[in-house]
Design goal:
This protein is of the alpha/beta class. About 50% of the residues lie in helices and about 15% in strands. It has two domains: about 170 residues, NAD(P)-binding Rossmann-like Domain (Rossmann fold), CATH 3.40.50.720; about 110 residues, Orthogonal Bundle (6-phosphogluconate dehydrogenase C-terminal fold). The strands form two sheets. The protein has a six-stranded parallel β-sheet, covered by helices on one side. Strands 7-8-9 form a three-stranded mixed β-sheet, covered by helices on one side. Helix 4 links the parallel strand 5 and strand 6. Helix 3 runs parallel beside helix 4 and helix 6 crosses helix 10. It is elongated and about 65 Å long.
Length: about 290
């Protein structure tokens, strides 16, 4: 592996996102050594058994001298992680993250890293899956997937290039946004759908005849609620962190539901069909762009 781009990569939080990043770099021959860092020794041991990482540690000082650090924990843990690694960062180390919200993470980076904040290049891989944990990690998770970076004004061009290179080696497509724009966009197309999916399953489960409802649920229910199998802790943190933008999108959705409710109340078949046709056409156009 003499041509590896990174001598040492440290991944804090070796689950689906962090584990797949490790496997992607390994598959590309891009990292000589990948160290898993975390709070759960059993999970780290499992990651070692699976060959996802080469070494494991629960000591944040392991980041000293690393070329690249990826923080792939739920966003609610980011502050504690940044505070823990800050004293051990050397000038050569570039830090990035996989958090689904960015304004809160950026604020934490400035507060916790202080003079080292310029070494932190925020990022968000748009490549989740319904199952979490290191056992779900795979080398091709990021192939042709979007990665959004939200660089800080203080970031050097070199630091941004290093992070971009790492994700490209995993097969990803790179995009760039401002943190506030990122949070508004993903409140609409990611955070709101997860919130609604969780809420619908919870509603059915709490229904007086919930068992009967689940017994008859089929493809439509399964497809709509697939993302309700996502990690509760992670999505709790995302929703709370981005609640301002999420509440705005939720209010818009409630207005849409109110309009549909009125159409139903009036028995306005033509009006309902118009809504459904607009939605179908919009989704069809979006699907074509994904091909």
């Amino acid at each position: 592996m003499a041509g590896a781009r990174f001598n040492t990569v440290v991944i804090f939080g070796v689950g689906l996102i962090g584990g797949s990043f490790a496997l992607g770099l390994k598959a590309a021959g891009a990292a000589k050594k990948v160290i898993g860092l975390g709070r759960n020794p059993a999970n780290l041991a499992h990651a070692l058994e699976l060959g996802v990482i080469d070494a494991a540690s629960t000591d944040p000082s392991v980041v000293a001298g690393a070329d690249l650090v990826l923080i792939a924990t739920p966003v609610g843990q980011m502050g504690a992680v940044l505070r823990a690694i800050a004293p051990h960062l050397t000038p050569r180390t570039v830090v990035t993250d996989g958090g689904s919200t960015k304004q809160d993470v950026v604020a934490l980076a400035y507060r916790m890293l202080k003079g080292r904040a310029a070494q932190f290049v925020p990022g968000h891989p748009i490549a989740g899956a319904e199952h979490s944990g290191v056992a779900a990690a795979r080398a091709d998770l990021y192939q042709k997937r979007k990665i959004v970076l939200t660089p800080l004004p203080e970031n050097s061009a070199r630091s941004v290039r290093r992070v971009r290179a790492a994700w490209k080696l995993c097969g990803a497509r790179l995009y760039q946004m401002q943190p506030a724009e990122h949070d508004r966009v993903f409140a609409a197309v990611s955070h709101l759908p997860h919130l609604l999916s969780f809420a619908l399953v919870d509603q059915v489960a709490r229904h007086p005849n919930g068992k009967q409802l689940f017994d008859y649920a089929a493809g439509g229910f399964r497809d709509f609620t697939r993302i309700a199998s996502s990690h509760p802790e992670m999505w709790r943190d995302i929703c709370v962190a981005n609640r301002k933008a999420l509440l705005t999108e939720l209010a818009g959705y409630q207005r849409e539901l109110a309009e549909v409710k009125q159409l139903l109340r009036k028995g306005d078949a033509a009006g309902l069909e118009q809504v459904f046709a607009r939605a179908r056409a919009a989704r069809g156009k979006w699907l074509k762009k994904q091909q």
